[in-house]
Amino acid sequence: MTTSANARVDKDEVARFDRLARDWWDERGPMKPLHKINPVRVAFLKDRICAHFGRDARAIDALSDLTILDIGCGGGILSEPLARMGARVTGVDPAGENIAVARAHAEDQGLSVTYHHGLAEDLAAEKQQFDVVLAMEVVEHVPDVPAFLRTAAALTRPGGFFGGSTLNRTLRSFALAIVGAEYVLRWLPVGTHRWEKFVTPDEFSDALSGAGFRPDAAEGMVFDPLRDRWRLSRDTGVNYFLTAGKPD
User: Fold this and answer.
1) Which pLDDT band holds residue 15 (cuts at 50, 70, 90)?
2) How far apart, in whole angstroms, are the C-alpha atoms of residue 233 and residue 248?
3) Which CATH class name applies to 3-245?
4) Domain assignments of the chain as residue spans, ordered by start
5) Cβ 221 vs Cβ 230: under 8 Å
6) Quick check: pTM over 0.70?
């Protein structure tokens, strides 16, 4: 990584995810919350991407031949279901151990996913562009959100789609995502998140607009303890999605 690239990534965050890499596919391990959220993420993204490109979301191969970039792909738990729906997926992550795990798991599953160890900026420097660019649970880990989203815009082809998810910076998110999830319920390793780096929907939307996207309204995601699953909601007070289109 170059010096300028290092300014765009938090080294401590990368090192922490490197240490957790071996547990990416353990549904009972430290990545359990992501595995719980993943069905909602996949369904939401499929519906929004298909609506954007005028496709039938009910089709098994609904994402056939769309090029998708999964920024901060980790061990590939989002990249793989997108590939199963026919997309040509590229995953990029600065944690080398994550990429090694992702490659090995995709190969074991017989899936074709291109994984790149590095930064999104590396791909932007190569002038690569994709139909869809995703940054799920990523912006709360980057030092400069507007700069990151300018890179995401450069990686999105004209007429393309951006999808992101993150945590809102509210007192409720501090109570639930930090105190509750990390210290009380132990759903996540302590230190996974820093509340001051959470991003409000207005901040996220403004940064997307500044990068040249046309953002949609935020969509919330909440945990239903009675059914032990996540679902979409109008409540954006803790977890939420934000999507956007890039003008032709």
Assistant:
1) low
2) 30
3) alpha beta
4) 3-245
5) yes
6) yes
